[in-house]
């Protein structure tokens, strides 16, 4: 097992996986807090169009993803309103860019192997350069989050009051969407377009069930993300199944466990009181 | 051009496409009104896992999709009302199902090609018996919607009032999601997992923007859905590009100007239970007169 670590590609996979897990969990906490998980899902599919477009032009897929997701983030930010699962605009954008992705793919190659790599992740083909880019993006994100931490938290939890207090809610929202775009693009490298949700949202959502203190939830999210990524990589080297499957299974396991723990700690039909900043929809059932 | 229609597979594709377009347009309207578009997207992705599993055990993909999407829709219908938490739970179920799908694909040795046709759909692989099955399932779906249309609309516009009036709001919601799951399983064959969403949301979102009257909106959505599908199949058969691309572009190309130019009449006041795409905040009675 440890012999494997001598191989370059294994080292790169672990390094990139570690960096992406940390980065995603940090950004993911705010995604969860802001209720933007659908926007996150949409951005990851937009990354699909970017990656296939880049393959078509022969440039790095990361570059294509950055370009497309940044444009989309600015577009979504311009919509201004809160991005929620009900948002038709996000839905329409999502289906449009998927169409574009399918087109680029069919122009690029008649074979499906490129698509499969982008959709399901290719952490074992990560290069040292990718690791360095990921590190740079990670440092930038951590720096920005540190500077923006308090106002962003305020604006995420109660946008109306934050705006009344003079916090630039709108600008923060666009800036945060750009950060989300950055980490989504990075996460696509590791788990693929279809499973970005597993690294970005799931660890943070699990952490949020376990503690309501922001810093503790942030750290717990990072921990869950790291354990899942490392565990997924280790299991993939021992077993024969894809890395992405293991990572997703582990994070989902954490999520369901956190639900159970939450239910035990708050027995009965405990419901959090409706928060003024949160929206309640007609029941799905 | 019309010579194309002589080919059996084109006929099958157009028939199946039309059936799918009608069913998705009707269902899509309710999905948009109820703010459940993310659930629609998730159910489509979950269908992928089902299809991959069915391929692995040697069954027809459609049956795997039916099992997975109906199961997932039952779980989703148990989730709470709070949007943020529900979106996350839907996302977790979807991601886990996709992970399973990847596992099934990697265990099956037809890997890439199979994945490609499930994800993006195909217009050449549709047989007459597929058309027949889609037709029967769609008839069932449309009949179910016809029966519950009025109470479902009531429950979508004002769930609290509907519940007070004795409408079984929760049961209706569950049945509705199961019907959505059935529709998605039918539609995936033609347009693929990734773009079912385009047919489900595109026509309905445009129609809901054009009129507040449910009957009219559904009629417009059906017309738009049929137009996109026919044009998409036509363009795809005379060009090398995939049909799902054309459908997605057409649906976005019509939605965008409508979204930017048509102002919905009435106030758009924020109402906690307001349906998206219509005029939230106005009860149905007032919207009729608006």
Topology:
The complex is a heterodimer of chains A (285) and B (290).
Chain A: H1 8-34, H2 37-57, H3 61-79, H4 88-108, H5 113-120, H6 128-157, H7 159-164, H8 169-191, H9 196-200, H10 202-210, H11 214-238, H12 243-265
Chain B: H1 8-33, H2 37-57, H3 61-77, H4 83-107, H5 111-120, H6 128-157, H7 159-164, H8 169-191, H9 196-210, H10 214-238, H11 243-261, H12 284-289
Helix pairs in contact in B: 1-6, 1-8, 1-9, 1-10, 2-3, 2-4, 2-5, 2-8, 2-9, 3-8, 6-8, 9-10, 9-11, 10-11
Account of the 3D structure:
The complex is a heterodimer of chains A (285) and B (290). Chain A is mainly alpha-helical and 285 residues long. Helices cover 76% and strands 0% of the residues of chain A. Chain A is globular. By secondary structure, chain B is an all-alpha fold. Chain B is built from twelve helices and no strands. Chain B is globular. At the A-B interface, helix 2, helix 4, helix 5 and helix 12 of A face helix 2, helix 4, helix 5, helix 8 and helix 9 of B.
What is the beta-strand fraction of chain B?
Answer: under 5%
Q: What structural class do helix, strand and pairing data of chain B support?
A: mainly alpha
Query: Most extensive interface: pair and counts?
Result: A-B, 62 and 78 residues
Helix count, DSSP H or I runs of 4 or more residues of chain A: 12
Q: Assign a percent range to the helix content of chain A.
A: over 70%
